[in-house]
Structures are given as C-alpha cells and as structure tokens.
Design goal:
disordered N terminus, four-stranded antiparallel β-sheet
C-alpha cells in the first residue's frame, strides 16, 4: 500500500459523507416551500430568451431570492424534462414541444457542425468513449443497438441540440395521450368565459329576429342595430361583430337569407356536453388569429407551464404573442401560474380534443386509475403529460388511502433497475400526509430508497453516502437517458474524484452511462477528468 492509499481512505471515510450531507440539507432547504403544495412542472428558462415586446407578467408575484440548485432538489422538479419511457412500456413519439417541454439546448456554430467529437456509446454491459460525427443522430437515439429503441424511427437532430454530448430522439408528430376531466367540470369553466356569456346575452337580445347586412365580407348586423345592441348589453359597437360571430359558432343563433334568428341558447347553456362543444366551436373566435392556435397546440401537447420567452423561442416569432396569450386566458383555455408561466386548462384540453377529432386524429385517453396496481400506475405515468400525471397520482392515492398507497408504490421501485420509476413514485407521494410519512420512515435504511426518503422527509438523519449516491444517480440517469443537461451541483462536486468512485462502486445499473456523460464534459473539466479515471474507461 502506498502512502497515498491511507490518505484516500481517510478522505472517503470523512469528507464524502460530510459533503453529501451538505447536499441533502441544501436540497431540503431549497424544496421546503415546494413540497407542499404540489409544485408546478416547469422547464428551466432558456439560456438566450427571445424578448417579447410589450410583455407584462401575468399575475406577477413579488420577486423571491433564488436558492442554489442541487441534484436532490432537481430530481423532482425536472420530471417534465425526463420523458424517456421505462423498459417494457411502448411509447409513441409525439410533437417536439411535448417531448422537450419548452427546453432547448445551446446553439452550435456552423463551423463545428461537421467536426468529429468524443461521444459515448453503450456497448453491452459497459460504456466507452467513441468517435462519431456530430451530424449523427446521437448515441441515445441511434446508437442504442439492440435496445428497446432501435426499431423506432427518429427525426434528424435539430441544430439547437448539436452542442450537447447527447441528443434526445425525435419522432413524428401525432395526437397525445391525455386525461380529460369529467365534462361537468369543464362546463363550469366554460360558463365563466366572458365572451361566451356575451354571446348568450346577444342571442337573447336578438329576440324573434334581427335584419342582416350581406356583402363581400362576413354576415353582420346593421350599424344601427350594432349601436343599440352595444348600448343594451354594456359593450362597445366594435365588440359586437366578434360577439355575433361567437354566437354563430356556438350555435346560439343562426342566419337565414335576410335575418339572424335565435336558437335554444338556454338549453345549450344548461347542458354540460353541448355547452363544452359550443365553447370548442367558438374557440377560434374567442382566442383570435395566429399565433393563438399554435400556442394552444404547444400547451396542449406538452401539458406543462411555459414562459412567454420560451413560447416565442419555440414559435420563432414573438409578434402578437402577448395579445394572443391574454386572449387565451380570457377565453378560459389557458391559465396563468404564479411564477409567470401559462398552462392549458382542463377546459382547454376538452377544446383541443374536439379539434383533434375534427382532424381525424382523436387523442387517446388514459384508462381509469381505479383498477391499476402500483407498478402499472408508475408505468402509465411515463406516457402521461405532467399535468395528467399529477391528477392521476392524486386520484390513485385517494382511492386507496395514503398508507396503503405509499406501501405499494415504494415496494414497486425497490429494485435498482427501476430507477426510471422512482421519481414518479416520490412525486405521487409528495404531500400524501402523515400516514404516508410513517411508511417512508420504515424505508429510511433501505439501500436504494434511503436517499429518496431523506429528501422526501426533509431531513438527512442517518442517511449513508451510498444511499445518497443512488438517489443522485437516479436523477442524473433520467437526464442522460432523455438527452437533457446535468445540473451543476457545486457542493457535490468539490471532490469529483471521490464522488465518481462512489458512483462507480454503487452498483447502480445506469452508473456507466452517467459516468460516460460526465467524462464527456457534461459537468465541466474537473469532473470529466475524474470520471475518466474510473474503471468505465479501462480494463481491469
């Protein structure tokens, strides 16, 4: 034994537990306000946001000091980014907006587009660094020889992803799989839409009929009738044409050759299903022209919150975006979130589902959660939008009770190979109550779940470094598998050589892939040099 070995032994015994305990405590403090209530699934802000002229934050809240991000604070917040399905669950690739949830990678210069660079390629039970062209589809998408993905077709990588050591796979667009709430709940939101309520009042104002003016443009009321209707309804004459078109689309009125006549609008208003359909038909008038339809498509397929800068970057044009988002909010299709993001509402889901059906591609609906076992639920959540995963998990816990649900979920992901399921299990259990906490405490010494339990219970206690490493590797593996950047955990990587050796010796099934990504510079030069010294990159 050389003189260096005792020093390293003392380092592993003393420094690493201390550093990892700092990571736990910092992660617990950062998540103190996020654990209850259930946090929104939000992607990170883009590095180079596109400015949106005239944008004012909707329901802007007072600025708060940002806390440092850690591996343990990232592992539950960034679920929306990790969309790779677990083994055994086939998944259709849908729109790029849904798979990326509003995130984008750094751009690459044209001069570097064709240059060869080091990348990692899975080869059996061990990974190694290989040289492949930057124009290739990437190791995660195209080089998974013999894996569950090798038969799926992937789209060419976009230029914004070319700067990453790995890139997510992209598939053809298609209808998403959604969870639609009962139509009664959607109808309540539709009745709160001011534009639809004005259309109902205009249908009542028409009475037995009103003359029409026909010409080269759309049908409209006479100018004197517009002024009188605006005065009676408390609107302006400029608003009457849009309200009239909304009433036509909703089916509240109909036109003949010379006049407009009312339908049985009150019956439509009282019938939940007919009202939601009427709202969906009139949504194009309530929300306005482009880019509102494209914004709604992005929000529907992703199922998570977006900042306006991210929407502008995804659309490639910020012109008219603030006005379109405000119109969507007023129509009830979109809701503002406290952090300045916007997200589609449950009424908006119903409206978009009707639109997809009109296109001949009805979205697939998730089955009820009542008869699902814990593992089946976790597998199902991988094929779900973030907003649907939140509601389905809450319903599943309510049906079984917190104690039984916690026991079943934890038992379903104790195997190290189930690292893709553990993040969902602990998201479902977040805020389940004291009965679930008792079950969590019984797993605090578990070699696989102990680090997760310490994080969920917001106390480090007697957690061991090996348990924390398993939790960190779970979160890193999710990001590597889905082609997302790794978090910059400064505290964790003070001694990168010791941490990489702990990762190598953890027995985690994805440790090789994570170390390969770190060795390629995912966390900077110092962790990369340390990762290259692990047995992943040499024999013996």
């Amino acid at each position: 034994m050389t003189i260096v070995e005792p020093f390293r032994f003392r380092l592993l015994r003393g420094t690493i537990p201390y550093l990892l305990s700092l990571v736990v405590e910092e992660g617990l403090r950062a998540l103190g306000e996020l654990l209850l209530p259930y946090p929104e699934l939000a992607p990170p802000r883009p590095k180079d946001p596109v400015p949106v002229p005239g944008h004012v934050d909707i329901e802007a809240s007072s600025p708060e000091a940002k806390t440092p991000r850690t591996a343990l604070s990232d592992m539950c917040e960034q679920l929306g980014e990790a969309t790779a399905p677990p083994t055994g669950l086939p998944r259709r690739e849908t729109a790029r907006a849904r798979s990326r949830c509003g995130t984008s990678g750094p751009p690459v210069s044209e001069g570097d587009a064709g240059a060869p660079r080091a990348m990692w390629r899975p080869t059996g039970t061990r990974s190694k660094v290989d040289w492949i062209s930057a124009s290739a589809a990437g190791p995660v998408s195209a080089a998974h020889v013999g894996s569950r993905r090798h038969e799926e077709k992937t789209a060419p990588p976009a230029t914004e992803d070319a700067g990453l050591p790995w890139r997510p796979e992209r598939g053809e667009e298609g209808p998403p799989r959604v969870r639609l709430v009962p139509v009664e709940r959607a109808a309540l939101q539709a009745r709160g839409c001011p534009g639809l309520a004005d259309a109902l009042r205009l249908a009542s104002w028409v009475g037995s009929g009103a003359p029409l003016v026909r010409g080269s443009g759309p049908e409209r009321l006479r100018s004197e009738d517009r002024s009188r209707a605006a005065s009676d309804l408390g609107l302006t004459p400029k608003e009457i044409p849009q309200v009239f078109e909304t009433a036509l689309r909703a089916g509240f009125v109909h036109t003949t050759a010379s006049e407009v006549r009312p339908e049985d609008a009150l019956e439509i208003w009282r019938d939940d299903d007919r009202l939601v359909r009427a709202w969906a038909r009139s949504l194009s008038i309530l929300a306005g022209p482009d880019p509102a339809p494209r914004v709604l498509d992005i929000l529907f397929t992703s199922g998570c919150g977006w900042h306006l800068e991210e929407l502008a970057q995804e659309l490639g044009d910020a012109e008219g975006l603030p006005a379109a988002v405000h119109a969507l909010i007023r129509s009830g299709a979109v809701e503002p979130l406290p952090d300045g993001q916007v997200r589609i509402t449950r009424l908006g889901d119903h409206g978009m589902a009707h639109r997809w059906r009109d296109r001949g591609e009805p979205p697939l609906e998730h089955p009820p959660t009542g008869g699902l076992r814990a593992r089946e639920l976790l597998l199902l959540l991988w094929d779900s939008r973030p907003v649907d995963a939140e509601s389905m998990g809450a319903e599943w816990i309510t049906e079984r009770g917190a104690r039984e649900a916690a026991r079943s979920l934890l038992a379903a992901c104790t195997d190290p190979v189930d690292w893709r399921l553990r993040v969902h299990a602990f998201r479902v259990l977040r805020g389940a109550g004291p009965e679930a906490d008792e079950v969590l405490d019984s797993y605090r010494d578990h070699p696989v779940l102990g680090g997760w339990v310490a994080h969920a219970r917001r106390r480090a206690g007697r957690v061991r470094p090996a348990q924390l490493v398993m939790a960190v590797l779970d979160t890193y593996a999710l990001r590597v598998d889905s082609g997302m950047p790794l978090p910059q955990d400064t505290e964790l990587w003070r001694d990168p050589e010791a941490v990489t050796r702990l990762m190598w010796g953890s027995g985690h099934p994805a440790a090789d892939s994570v170390l390969s990504a770190i060795a390629l510079g995912a966390l900077g030069p110092r962790p990369a040099r340390a990762a290259r010294r692990t047995p992943v990159f040499y024999a013996g």
